């Protein structure tokens, strides 16, 4: 399972993690995984266009568990992964509220274009998470991590 970047070792972090990000606790323990890109959130395993998800999920997750270990000793990465997870939850909930599901294969074919249009607008305008509830939750995540690791952001 090697990507097309050349030289391969110089690819960006997201490519090293793709197709999953870790769902972590505040101490950096891996609880599970979720889709590494917003657009991958909209596919379940059976309809996912990426063969790494559709055919090699367990192998990829096992490899990621080992390679993520050094990152998960840094509260900034823990916060980043928790923040990404929260963003994904808000995006999925916004789409589910309007379409009854956030999975494209569960949406009627005639609504696919409308679904993609709505997803893009939610992302571009940050509408899914531009609210007080999200702000409170992201601040709580920061505070919980800082309680364990000490302050880790240069601003607050």
TrEMBL record:
Top-rank lineage group of the source organism: Bacteria
Designated name of the protein: YkgJ family cysteine cluster protein
